[in-house]
TrEMBL record:
Gene3D superfamilies: Aldehyde Dehydrogenase, Chain A, domain 1, Aldehyde Dehydrogenase, Chain A, domain 2. InterPro entries: Ald_DH/histidinol_DH (IPR016161), Ald_DH_C (IPR016163), Ald_DH_CS_CYS (IPR016160), Ald_DH_N (IPR016162), Aldehyde_DH_dom (IPR015590), MeMal-semiAld_DH (IPR010061). It comes from the Bacteria. The gene is mmsA. This is methylmalonate-semialdehyde dehydrogenase (CoA acylating). It holds the Pfam family Aldedh. One of its GO terms (biological process) is thymine catabolic process. One of its GO terms (molecular function) is methylmalonate-semialdehyde dehydrogenase (acylating, NAD) activity. CDD domains: ALDH_F6_MMSDH (cd07085). Residues 17-479 form the Aldehyde dehydrogenase domain. Its EC number is 1.2.1.27. Keywords: NAD, Oxidoreductase. It comes from Paracoccus salipaludis.
Length: 499
């Protein structure tokens, strides 16, 4: 049985707790590895050694730190296929999707090459008699990243690029469900020139998370996961004076206006709703057609597309549309919510409950589901299902459709499909949601913009990647300097006002 250890001080380090977690092959349901789970003392020791390593790294000039990012881009491209294979084997997503996972993380590393520019402060001379004033952006010290199972490459890279380029040391606590790729990333950073100890990968469960939150050394925590845990980490971090950037769940609506290209909208819904088996925080899980005729025509176009979806293991080839979900518990929860939708009166237009894949009967595969005539009081509408389930909520008007998206407790992403520029501009301006797509179903911003949801999808003032990330991982110091000129005037006993 393959053993997955921590990555401490630039090398693999077996755990000492005696506790491990199973790492499954989601396609077969078999345990393929065991990952070490850290104790509080193991986490504390890793944090202390990171603090020691950070002093020299933080004093390294930004351009040299940026060169590590530059080399990291080359190495990620070199090892892309190898990493994607490992990612697919532990997560279950298709090989092209796994490569996309890595690519979107790589783009943030590319953006982080520009750290010297982003870390520049401000300066003004002559603020007063002989007085200059300037600000500096300095690293926080040791920061932590707690990352989810659904993007085991992208989200760690989103955190690591800006945090490391800013001069911090990072404790990465990845998901224990697919832990190998984070270790591979750490090994690549070492090869790229990152000093030992500056990046520590510590695997664990709640005990490890609480050790991070209780640490007096950790200055900031970045988290992506479910809303209850995001709120827990945000509150605990605030109690101990840490910065926190916590992103939670989502229920993303896509509004389809009567003038929309329905073939384009249907293709977008299928890709955004069922890609990665729906295990994306930016997945479209609610379609909102405006008007009965629009809804009827949309359902007609969706059904054949959904029924043709290819579900299978990543090893079956690149034409597979999506693979299994990550665990048996996840599969059971999805099917439980589907049953609840039927019980509460939603119309199950495409029923994937009996889906079974020959030769992979023990895998965690879930067939595609499409609900119609869903109402906002139903569990399948209120809850983030995180599976291949698309719900259709019919709206009588644009205002009703907009209100659905705005009234939901989550505010991660949303989209509108229309040919009407006025409707699109109004929607983008008024909706209280962090990321908006106009004829774009999954509006994940590029690396030089910031990623973040509103309402119960995000806790904290600054978003992921883009300029916000460098603000989050640095603190501003302002210096007021006076260089007196002329004859010394002697001591002054009052604070001289600025002229």
């Amino acid at each position: 049985m393959r053993a997955i250890h921590h990555w401490i001080d630039g090398k693999e380090a077996p755990g000492t707790s005696g506790r491990t977690a199973d790492v499954f092959n989601p396609a077969t349901g078999e345990v393929q590895a065991k990952v070490d789970l850290a104790t509080k003392s193991e986490m504390d020791a890793a944090i202390e050694r990171a603090a020691e390593a950070q002093v020299k790294w933080g004093a390294t000039n930004p351009q040299r730190r940026a060169r590590v990012m530059m080399e990291m881009v080359r190495l990620l491209n070199r090892d892309m296929d190898k990493m994607a294979e490992m990612l697919s084997s532990e997560h279950g997503k298709t090989f092209p999707d796994a490569k996309g996972d890595i690519q979107r993380g790589l783009e943030v590393i590319e953006f982080s090459i520009g750290a010297p520019h982003l870390l520049k402060g401000e300066f003004i001379d002559g603020a007063g008699p002989g007085i200059d004033m300037y600000s500096m952006r300095q690293p926080l010290g040791v920061v932590a990243a707690i990352t989810p199972f659904n993007f085991p490459a992208m989200i760690p890279l989103w955190k690591l690029g800006p945090a490391l380029a800013s001069g911090n040391a990072v404790i990465l606590k990845p998901s224990e469900r697919d832990p190998s790729v984070p270790n591979m990333i750490a090994a690549l950073f070492k090869e790229a020139g990152l000093p030992d100890g500056v990046l520590q990968v510590v695997h664990g469960d709640k005990e490890a998370v609480d050790a991070i939150l209780d640490s007096e050394i950790i200055q900031a925590v970045g988290f992506v996961g479910s809303t209850p845990i995001a709120q827990y980490i945000y509150e605990r971090a605030a109690q101990t004076g840490k910065r926190a950037q916590c992103f939670g769940g989502a229920k993303n609506h896509m509004i389809i206006m009567p003038d929309a290209d329905l073939d384009q909208a249907a293709d977008a819904l299928v890709g955004a709703g069922y890609g990665a088996a729906g295990e994306r925080c930016m997945a479209i899980s609610v379609a909102v057609p405006v008007g009965e005729e629009t809804a009827d025509r949309l359902i007609e176009k969706l059904v054949p597309r959904i029924e043709k979806l290819k579900v299978g293991p990543w090893t079956a080839g690149n034409d597979i549309d999506y693979g299994p979900v990550v665990t048996k518990a996840a599969k059971e929860n999805i099917l439980r919510l589907v049953e609840r939708g039927v019980e509460q009166g939603a119309e199950l237009v495409v029923d994937g409950r009996d889906f079974s894949l020959q030769g992979y009967e023990n895998g965690f595969f879930v067939g595609p589901h499409l609900f119609d005539r869903v109402t906002p009081d139903m569990d399948i509408y209120r809850t983030e299902i995180f599976g291949p389930v698309l719900s259709t909520v019919r709206a009588a008007s644009y205002e009703e459709a907009l209100k659905l998206a705005m009234d939901h407790e989550y505010g991660n992403g949303t989209a509108i499909f229309t040919r009407d520029g006025d409707a699109a501009r109004d929607f983008a301006s008024r909706c209280n949601i962090g990321m908006v797509g106009i004829n774009v179903p999954i509006p994940v911003p590029l690396a030089y913009f910031t990623f973040g949801g509103w309402k119960k999808s995000g806790f904290g003032d600054l978003n992921q990647h883009g300029p916000d990330a460098f603000r989050f991982y640095t603190r501003t110091k302002t210096v007021t300097a006076r260089w007196p000129s002329g004859i010394k005037e002697g001591a002054a006993f009052n604070f001289k006002a600025m002229d």
